[in-house]
Amino acid sequence: MKEKILLIQTAFLGDLILTTPLFRAVKKKFPDSSLTVIVNKGTESVLEANPWIDEILPLDKKSVKSSLLRFWRFASDLRKRNFTVCLSPHFSFRSSLLAWSSGAPIRIGYRTAGFSFLLTEKKSRPILGPHEVDKLLSLLYSEEESKAIDRRPELYWKEESVSGIRNVLKSWKLEKGGYILMTPSSVWETKRMPAEKFREVGIALSEKTGMPVVLAGGKGDLDLCEEVGKGFALNLAGKTSLPEMSYLTAGAALLVTNDSSPIHFASAFDIPTLAVFGATVPDFGYTPLATRSFISEIEGLYCRPCGIHGGKVCPEKHFRCMLEQDPNRIVREALRLISR
Ligand code: SF4
């Protein structure tokens, strides 16, 4: 029988990118299946042209959180589609509720998810240790089977979606492999290395490599990127769509970033990645999967990690995990990554 598979992943952008190996694995396990993916509205374009997905359903989380009626409308539309299997890697009780509402007789998710009693197969999910991609693959595959599966995320774009960024790069004479990409922001404040340190790193890398630096981020990161790059870098914060971010990352010689979603864009294109970790730790499983990478972190700091995502302010008030980051060391390691 042709399986009709529903996958619910309404987490952050980075989590969605890290779910792309699972999309591929689903189609490998069920070659004739159809795959429908529910994503957080606003992130769907990062999956455009993905060859493994048959249908994307964006879910406006704010809207369904504020109206039970809208939630049930969305849920009852799902039921009409006759899904046979539902994979629910997201933890929220709403995801479990959607999985159950879909009517799929097989509903696979994590034991620790909210309302997990609505799932028919519950997998364990260690907080520390395995990479997030492996945790996601564990929904379908045993640890042994997962070893044979390609863990690299994959991102695509439609040509018409990247004509803008193509023109920008052309007008700045930036060629593939000829610029350094820096993304100094993060959704969480304690995951951000201070702007002056990013600036120091950017200026040094630009001088030592002769390569221009491009800054990227969301609309809200415009001022931060201006502070980091004033006078030496091209600031594209708020000017790239998600497919354009894929295109921009794919052309970089190096990414310098915090522990945030650009790591996973870079992993998709095997771009050397220098990632600065503050309040979070690599053991949470969100590390770069690029062949060449380095994580800058203050090892042995008693208060790390202080939250699964990092928080808005340092609970210990000293913010040593970021204030003690050494720009000279970051530059040294970054140069090592691109000179290999
Ligand atoms: S408590 Fe420690 S790990 Fe958390 S933000 Fe402060 S310095 Fe960083």
UniProtKB/TrEMBL annotation:
Respond yes or no to whether keyword Phosphoprotein is given for this record.
Answer: no
- Gene Ontology CC entries for this record: cytosol
Q: Which GO terms describe its molecular function?
A: ADP-heptose-lipopolysaccharide heptosyltransferase activity
* SUPFAM superfamilies hit by this protein: UDP-Glycosyltransferase/glycogen phosphorylase
What biological-process GO terms show up in the record?
lipopolysaccharide core region biosynthetic process
Q: Which UniProt keywords apply?
A: Glycosyltransferase, Transferase
Q: Gene3D superfamilies, from UniProt?
A: Glycogen Phosphorylase B
Q: What is this protein called?
A: Glycosyltransferase family 9 protein
Species, as recorded: Leptospira fluminis
> What lineage does UniProt assign to this protein's organism?
Bacteria, Pseudomonadati, Spirochaetota, Spirochaetia, Leptospirales
